[in-house]
Amino acid sequence: MRASPRLTYPTAVVLHAVSRGIRYGFDIIDASGLQSGTVYPVLRRLEDAGLLRSSWERVHTAREEQRPPRRYYQLTGAGAETVKQALRRYPGLGHTLGRRGITQPSPA
Q: DSSP letter string over 28-52?
């Protein structure tokens, strides 16, 4: 586990998205408007720092839906604390994802 990454705005957006139940990369990209070249490195750094953990969905599920398997992300306890810090640092963050029409958690 590495030191926590800097709490930049993109990092805060990704953490907030995961805290809202948006749990895999493409959905985070769609909900946030961030580019894939931003989201995936942030996810990797957050996982390396112990703020997120991930797991791959069952290959069978992906095959049934004729798509690649998804890697799902979940906040750790430290990640939940960092989301609180992010919301204090970026007060408008709570409205970012809602403006894009995603206000409820996605099904797992």
A: HHHHH---HHHHHHHHHHHHHTTSE
